[in-house]
Amino acid sequence: MINVKKWKNDLEMTRKSKDEFFGSGHPQSPIPQMKLRNFKGLAYYPLDFVYRFELDIYEHKEKKWLKIQDTKGGESELIRWGEFRFKIDDKNCTLQAYKSNPMEERLFIPFRDATSGKETYGAGRYIDIEPEMHQTTDGKWIIDFNLAYNPWCAYSDAYVCPFVPPENWLKVQVYAGEKNYTLD
Question: For the whole prediction, is pTM greater than 0.90?
Fold first, then answer.
């Protein structure tokens, strides 16, 4: 059984650390130097346990490479590794999980939802999961939309980000994770 209080505290600390890093002026922060003065932190939905799932992955037998366009007009290739099936508001949802290299452990889950372009970044958000941090002892994967983040191209034109493939466009609203952020 998960300790919800600890879960909430851990996520609040993660958000605080990210805001501190983004606003620190560190050369790797995606917030442009000229915008740091007005940076007050990222906008987030309130933490909501209903958007945390423990799921089996339905690994694809044939792992196909998928070409994905990016924000600068280029292309990257990802392996369509498997899919996660779950429900939000009693609606069936499926998200594909990708890898950029078959040897890596981490899974990349880009998605759009019905909040994209309204309350959240229009091009979509991402979730990264790794076995040592996001897998239960019985092998289920923890997909927590409270960890959904904007790609760094949402903050600066200096970054290139892959677009979310249409197969990962959810028709439901996901009121979890980072909201849209304006740098003005």
Answer: yes
